[in-house]
Design a protein that fits this description.
binds zinc ion; ZCCHC4; nucleic acid binding; rRNA (adenine-N6-)-methyltransferase activity; binds S-adenosyl-L-homocysteine
């Protein structure tokens, strides 16, 4: 359970605990000749030491922040022998899933033909079992009598991956998922590119099978377990940190075709990436998906694919660095497997997760029954505690609490902050002035923390 550190990060200065870059590493990005690990092309990083950026460069796995999950490492200037290259290729092949997506689709068809009494799911292997395989799993815990409803909600059947660094899965609370889908439909979208949003995908799929809803979804996710439940037109095994389609050109084409909007069916991309960081890597993948849309849709040369990027509010400046056309909505996205991220009433914690979008803010109608109201000056919906500041001329709260204006800082700050004359800015009452005075971890300059380091903004 990651509740503990999540509790810590939602409290007070979450940005310190959820710093976008690992330690003193800076992301340089995806190099054209990058070597590959089982998760596709590795990313290029540089180790920086205080004050200078020209450390030694190296490649590491794009998807796994924890060395225990993927220990791929190579110095950029390292000579790799033929034998090691061959061994690496072999290793990458052996670390692919045991069934292909095609095989999983076949298995699913056979599974559906089974009577309820013979439908088993192995909880240990996280796999639907066909009767011939039961024997191999006798010692494993399994669920029996898997219903069609269960098959339509794989995110409930599969356990959420919990690895905090690599792939923690935080599933939307029903209320938030329903809100997102209603919003998407009301905005007139008929297709959703679901990038790392299996629960939204599943809500759309089951809606489509019940009603004559015309909304369709394509799920892109690194969690291959989902290939057991969806066809190749519904799911692509995808890594959003390096824009890698594990299914190669065929899968890429599936995505391209999906983005091609015929009969005026408008497309929106919705993504809810792991919060661990690497905003730069995510942004570069999303730009590639956006340009896929643009190529498919030659007519709209000066438009952007509509996007909802769901992410904590303290990444706002990082996201806007990469996507100046985006703005942050006040809506608090809630999660089911996070006590903390559940909807905050008085005394309860509020979710720090927001929607960033390139759609016109006034079009994003937030539920009045949950306290959101329309600010006619800002032309957007804001949370109930978010007061319009006359001096800033904007509704300035980021976290839903009422913020206060500091005349010395010339901006609104958190209610718990006070102006510190040593630091020359507002901070928590009990902060240590040195942290800022000694300077940023990455560039060594004073006046900002590593999470706001300007030298990292445009890598
Ligand atoms: N709130 C969403 C789930 C978000 S959790 C929902 O309820 O639908 C983050 C999701 O991103 C998970 O589904 C996880 O499998 C996926 N993910 C994590 N790392 C990824 C990567 N490198 N590439 C693609 N998807 C990834
Ligand atoms: Zn306002
Ligand atoms: Zn103000
Ligand atoms: Zn101040
Ligand atoms: Zn810095």
């Amino acid at each position: 359970e990651g509740g503990g550190d999540m509790a810590a990060s939602a409290a007070g200065d979450a940005e310190d605990l959820c710093s976008p870059e690992v330690g003193e590493l800076a992301l340089l990005g995806l190099a054209p000749s990058a070597p590959s690990c089982p998760h596709g092309p590795a990313l290029l990083f540089v180790k920086t030491s205080q004050g200078k950026k020209e450390g030694r460069r190296f490649y590491a796995c794009s998807a796994c922040r924890d060395r225990k999950d993927c220990n791929f490492f190579q110095w950029e200037d390292e000579k790799v022998s033929e034998t090691r290259l061959a061994a690496r290729e072999e290793y990458n092949r052996n670390h692919q899933p045991s069934f292909t997506h095609r095989q999983n689709v076949e298995r699913y068809k056979n599974f559906l033909l089974l009577p309820l009494s013979k439908r088993r799911f192995c909880q240990e292997c996280q796999q639907l079992l066909l009767p011939a395989e039961w024997e191999k799993h006798v010692d494993h815990q399994s669920l029996c009598g898997i219903s069609t409803a269960q098959l339509q909600s794989p995110s409930q059947l599969l356990y959420p991956l919990e690895n905090k660094k690599t792939n923690a899965q935080y599933l939307f609370a029903d209320r938030s998922c329903q809100f997102l889908l209603d919003l998407i439909i009301n905005l007139g979208f008929r297709r959703v590119l679901s990038v790392g949003t299996p629960r939204l995908h599943e809500m759309i799929q089951s809606k489509a099978s019940q009603e004559d809803s015309r909304v369709r979804s394509l799920l892109l996710d690194i969690d291959f377990r989902y290939s057991q439940f969806y066809t190749e037109d519904e799911f692509c095994h995808y890594n959003m940190f390096n824009h890698h389609f594990f299914g190669g050109e065929v899968a890429r084409e599936t995505c391209r075709t999906f983005l091609y909007q015929d009969n005026g069916e408008r497309v929106i991309m919705v993504t809810d990436p792991p919060f661990g960081g690497l905003v730069g890597a995510l942004a570069s993948s999303f730009k590639k998906l956006m340009s896929m849309w643009k190529e498919a849709e030659k007519g709209h040369s000066n438009q952007e694919m509509p996007v909802f990027w769901i992410f904590p509010y303290f990444f706002e400046s990082r996201i806007l660095d990469f996507f100046p056309s985006f703005s942050m909505m006040d809506y608090q996205v809630d999660y089911e497997n996070h006590a903390l991220y559940k909807h905050g009433k008085t005394g309860r914690r509020q979710s720090p997760v927001r929607i960033f979008t390139n759609l016109t803010p006034s079009m994003i109608v937030l539920p009045v029954e949950e306290g959101y109201r329309f600010c006619s000056i800002c032309q957007r919906y804001v949370s109930s505690g978010n007061q319009h500041c006359e001096i800033c001329n904007s509704c300035t709260s980021k976290d839903g609490r009422r913020w206060k204006h500091c005349v010395l800082c010339k901006k609104c700050v958190k209610p718990s902050w006070f102006h510190c004359n040593i630091c020359n800015c507002c901070a928590l009452q009990n902060h240590t002035c040195e942290t800022i005075a000694t300077g940023c971890f990455v560039c060594g300059k004073a006046g900002h923390k590593r999470s706001n380091c300007p030298s990292l903004s445009h890598t």
